[in-house]
Amino acid sequence: MKKNLTVFKIPAKALEDPELAEYIDSLMKDIAGSINKRQHISQLAKSLAQKDFVEVTTGQWARFAFLRQNLILFNQIVAESMAKKVEVDKNGETLDDDLDDHDKHDHRDRERLWTDKEFWEFVDTLLDQLHDDAEQRPTMELRKKEWEKNFTESLQDDLQMFPASDKNSSIRPSDGKSISDWQRAIHQELVW
Fold this sequence. Notes:
Number of helices: 8
Order of helices and strands: HHHHHHHH
Distance between the termini: 18 Å
Number of strands: 0
Structural class: mainly alpha
């Protein structure tokens, strides 16, 4: 998250704010709770926006879905990592964390073992990979399309995984045309 502030539209100074750190923890609890409750993305978006006067756009739904889909993936990876660590410990093998710098060089091809405290680092790694993939496109327009495609796919997957229980009760995202000037500035121009 720290390396990809523009994606989440967060100024770097804001991450030093203890209230924001508390809010991010709350955000993760809300996302995890929405997984357990199998909430539709509209319900998650409404709980994350926390204010009725904030119009939540489809682009924001897609980013919430990206976080939720990758939290699910991350939890699976952490479980696999823990199982591997137990197996390694049982067999008396050495993990990369236990090696000195010279030995780590020889073990670069080993798979990383993630812990549950490293979600935002995991997200940063994913975003870096997506950015690198998008940069392979020859024009800025194609790069933007490739970048947005990842979030769109996350939203589509999320809508299939967490369908609305009642089509009438799910909220539609804002088309972005009726949002206030201050909100448009934050979303599009990164003005704080």
